[in-house]
Amino acid sequence: MTDHETDDEPDWNPEQLRSAIKAAGVALWTWNVDDSTFLMDAKGYELWEVSRGGPLTFERLSAKIHPADRDRVRSAFVATRVIAGPYEIDFRILRDASDVRWISARGQGNDAGIVARVMSGIFLDVTGRKQAEEGHELLAGEMSHRVKNLLALASGLTAITSRSTTSKEEMVSHLTQRLTALGRAHDLVRPLKGGQGNAALLGDLFTVLLAPYDDEGAFAGRIRVAVPRMGVGESSATSLALVIHELATNSLKYGALSVETGTLDVSGVLAEGEVEIAWSEQGRPVVEPPASSDGYGSKLLHRAVTGQLDGSICYDWTPSGLVVVLRLKENRLSV
């Protein structure tokens, strides 16, 4: 070996290695292949939140693994007995009911790396990276969902306008007005910079946002709003506008607003500090209720209502319509 090669591969002393491992937040482990017992350093016990009392076995650690990942992790560890080369597996552990951490287990799976039937490797907390990946996936999904909604809105508003106009020029004029109104309504869906703007009235919020979807002429007035007269704070107005916009888009795509005979009634009552708003669609096409609520639109609604507005949302599907009930706290809406 040349001097240059020696310089490129320095011989780290134990103190330097310990310092580097500590700085990286790495937990060291060894696994006895024959009896499945584990040894971990102090960082490992801290990461998994297990006590040092009693033997540390693979089964004991498995109890901390998220139930959805447990079988997959067990299979992967068993497979390392015959896998050649390094391996890596990411999984979740439950440190308590609300603290979910992502762990990356890395080690060597070939016989050359097994000394006296003992394998060595590391555990690394990768929760931050996993949360960032999930956030990016959610954002990409929501962006795709919104683009599809915009295309559906343009198609639906064109169909509505064509029913109430008699010439190409009139249709262009009315459609332009609707799209302009939709743009103004969209401003209510995004937060204002620097705390601009004041609280809006609940009824005005619904009226402004739903105006682009109402018909004209013979079919005018099929959207009716009757809610308590109360103010909605700037923060809550943004979240509630997002909910209204999503419900209206769904109705225009395949609900009551997608057909000439469909109607939409929005009514509300205020009692004991809680506002109950009923979004009632009648005359909608007969469709099967969705089998699950895993779509981005459903997730968006649920997150806005339960997370941002601290309320609840429920659906009642009937052969001729749909009733969506929102329950929101009066003091939360004023924020």
What does it look like?
By secondary structure, the protein is of the alpha+beta class. The chain has helices at 3-8, 14-24, 42-48, 58-62, 67-79, 127-163, 168-186, 202-210, 234-254, 296-308, 330-333; strands at residues 26-32, 38-40, 86-94, 100-108, 118-125, 200-201, 223-226, 231-232, 263-271, 274-282, 312-318, 321-329. The chain has eleven helices and twelve strands. The strands form three sheets. The chain has a five-stranded antiparallel beta sheet with strand order 2-1-5-4-3, with helices on both faces. The protein has a five-stranded mixed beta sheet with strand order 7-9-10-12-11. Strands 6-8 form a two-stranded antiparallel ribbon. It is elongated, with a radius of gyration of 29 Å.
Oligomer: single chain
Low-confidence stretches: 191-197
Q: How much β-strand is present in the residues?
A: 15-25%
How confident is the prediction overall: mean pLDDT? 79
Count of strand segments: 12
Radius of gyration: 29 Å
Please outline the major beta sheet: 5 strands, antiparallel
Strand order of the largest sheet: 2-1-5-4-3
CA-CA gap between termini? 71 Å
Proportion of residues in helical segments: 40-55%
> Any idea what the shape is?
elongated
The helix/strand class is alpha+beta
Discrete helix count: 11
